[in-house]
Structures are given as structure tokens and as C-alpha cells.
Amino acid sequence: MNLDKLENQARALIDQDQRIEAIKLVRQTTGWGLKESKEYVDTLARAALPALSPVDEAALEQAVKALIQQDRYAEAVKHVREQTGWGLGDCKAYVDALAGGSTVNWVFVASRVSDLLDRGMKDEAVEWLMAQGGMTAREARDYVDSILTVRSSYSSPGSRELPAQVVSQVRDLLASDRKVEAVKLVCILTNWGLRDSKDYVDSLESKKKRRRKRRRRRKARRGDAGFKTGDSVVVKPGTVDPDFGVEIGGWQGRVVEGPGDEDMVLIRWDSITLRNMPDLNNVKSRAWVGPR
Is the overall model pTM greater than 0.70, yes or no? Predict the structure, then answer.
């Protein structure tokens, strides 16, 4: 599969206002599902849109904030679509960012930062990251400088690493099973082709899988390996709970959730002792629990 050729063909269809045909082409060529194919075409279409001028963007932001303050969210999204021609997802992300949403849409932020850098507006890109990405001035400037270095120093991944913030964002997307967005993020920021961006994300995904294997091995050495919801367990004799200072050796219970954070399991105890100690009803094991 020649992804560079696919990108050129899809862009040509987009330029002819044949977005549905472009999505069909991507599906047939890659074997991706409808959602992934549409996201890919949307990314190419957004990159082809004319950028807003600083004056237009300032006016748009002011108008959207006014609508948000009046609790007219749907109208705010509609206004952004009419003024920019962006897709619905990008418009919602823009409105959410101005509304102070707790989740940052890094693909959208990357798209705007990339647009500003392409126009030589480095300071504006830094300001955008501070306002929409929640970064400090130093973090934003380091982020922008790193992206510019990536773009100027090499045209494909090779052995070089992206800025730590970008790597963290990509890993967060992978952890949420949003690989297509992770590829889009890398592609937008670096100006790499789709193939190189996907290869880079695949390399991070492989590292993540290796870390999971190491965690499973550590977990096996600690003794919690194999525990799952519903398993019966018993506390090792002589054990004192470190949080409550209570002797709990011999307690019996059942796993109600696990393993979770730090490879611990949540246990509901059967012991009659709990009648007088309800606070101990749900605690996390610390490798002192074995199967019954």
C-alpha cells in the first residue's frame, strides 16, 4: 500500500468536493473502518482550508465566548462552522476549549499551532499554547522550538525523538484506543507523511506493549498474578494492615475489582470482624494476599 500515493489521490478528490469518494478510496485502499477513513479525510480537508487572519480569529473568539456566556452552545458551534468551514468535530473542540473544558483536544491545538508556524507566527503559536493548551510561557516556547527543530533538522523520524509533551500526548491517545488521532497529531506537528507518522506511533505502541510485559512479570513475582474479579482469597498469617494497624491474618474474602492501579486488587472481606469495622470492608491488597 503506497500511502503517499493514497494521500495525493484523496486530496485531489477533496479539492473536487468529492469527500465521500475520498472516504471510499481510503477504505478500499487501507481496509480501515468508516470512522478511521473519515477522520483521515477530515484531516486532509482541514489542512487544505485557508487559514483565518488574526483579525478574523479574534472576532470569532469574541463572538463564540459571547454565545457561551449565554448558554447557547449549539449556536456557538454553528457559528464556528459558518465562519471557518471546519468539520463538526473541530468546531466542537474549538468551542469546548473556549468554554474552559477540562479535556484538551491536542489534535485540534496541534492543527492551530501548525497553521501559525506555517505562517511564521511563532509568538502567536506560543500564546495559543498558553491559552488553549494550559502550558506556561516556558513550556509553550520550548514546545514550539522543539517542533521547529523537528521540521528543519530531518524529514522523517529516524532515531530522533519528538518533544516530551508530544510523546506524552501520543501515549495518552494510545491509552484511550485513539490511535488514528495519535497519528494525526504527529502528522500535523511534524509535516511528516502519513506513513512516517504511523511508523512513529507504532514504535511508541510497541514500547508500551513491552512495558506491559515487564509489569506483568513484576506482578507475578509479587504474588498477585492471576487474580481476577470473583476469586476467593485469604490474608497471610501475622499480617497487620499498615493503614489501620489491625491484625488481619487469616481473613477471608473475595476479589471485587482487580488488578488495578499499582497491580493491587480490591477485596470485600467475609470476616465477622467487619461488623465492628466497616471502614475495612474495601481495602487494597499489598502483595500479602494469596488464593484460598
Answer: no
* Partners of 232 in beta bridges: 254
With b for 16 or more beta-carbon neighbours within 10 A and e for fewer, the 265-285 pattern comes to bbbebeeeeeeeeeebeebbb
Predicted local distance difference test score (pLDDT) of residue 221: 47
The length of the chain in residues reads: 292
Query: What single DSSP character describes residue 202?
Result: H
Give per-residue pLDDT as tens, 118-168.
Answer: 888 898 888 888 776 667 888 888 888 888 887 776 655 655 677 777 888
**Nearest residue to 109 (alpha-carbon basis) of 82, 86, 88, 128:** 128
* 291: enclosing H helix or E strand: strand 289-291
For residue 285, name the pLDDT band (cuts at 50, 70, 90). very low
How far apart, in whole angstroms, are the C-alpha atoms of residue 127 and residue 104?
Answer: 15
**What does the H/E/C string look like for 81-133?**
HHHHCCCHHHHHHHHHHHCCCCCCCHHHHHHHHHHHHHCCCHHHHHHHHHHHC
